[in-house]
Amino acid sequence: MVGWLLPAARFLQDLDRSNVEVRQLDIRTTDLEDERYDLVHCRTLLIHLTDTERVGRRMVAALRAGGWLLAEEPDLTARAAVTRDHPDAETFDSFVRRTTEWYGSRFGRSLPLLLDRLGLADCGNEVTSSIVRGGEPRARVYVETRRRVRDKY
């Protein structure tokens, strides 16, 4: 199995397998071999690009017959305060609405449509959700993001 993985590459660098090749590259500009890879993986990548169709076609072209494209993309509009009576619940929800009004924020829910346009067969999709409690590392990411973009939104 030959694999091409972006963020996960750091976890696989020391994998000593003769049948696995890990490559980290810029899918927009790197020359790729056609029909070479058993697995093409991207995570939270397409949401940041404006040329998703072109990039998707490049990824599909790199797949061998029977290969897998694993694309993990978020739908940022699904975030909301769970504890409705928390004093900051409406502030959090308002911040989420204002910061997710850009084009890619809903990309996760449109990913199946892109896969259809790319002509892939046997496509599936899965949606997961998690609750982040205040003080957890992911909650601190939200707080830091809000601090950094406070004046923009």
* Cα-based radius of gyration, to the nearest Å: 18 Å
Q: How do the strands of the widest beta sheet line up side by side?
A: 1-2-3
Low-confidence stretches: 1-6
Count of DSSP E strands?
3
Strand content: 5-15%
Helical stretch count?
5
Output mean pLDDT.
82
Given the C-alpha coordinates, what overall shape results? elongated
The main β sheet shows up as: 3 strands, parallel
The first-to-last residue Cα distance is 45 Å
Topology pattern, helix = H, strand = E: EHEHEHHH
Helix/strand structural class: alpha/beta
Can you give the helix content as a percent range?
25-40%
Describe this structure in words.
Helix content is 33%, strand content 13%. The longest helix has 13 residues, at 137-149. It has helices at 9-12, 52-62, 89-99, 107-117, 137-149, and strands at residues 3-5, 37-43, 63-72. The chain contains five helices and three strands; from the N terminus they run βαβαβααα. By secondary structure, it is of the alpha/beta class.
Fold blueprint:
Elements lengths: L2 E3 L3 H4 L24 E7 L8 H11 E10 L16 H11 L7 H11 L19 H13 L4
Parallel strand pairs: 1-2, 2-3
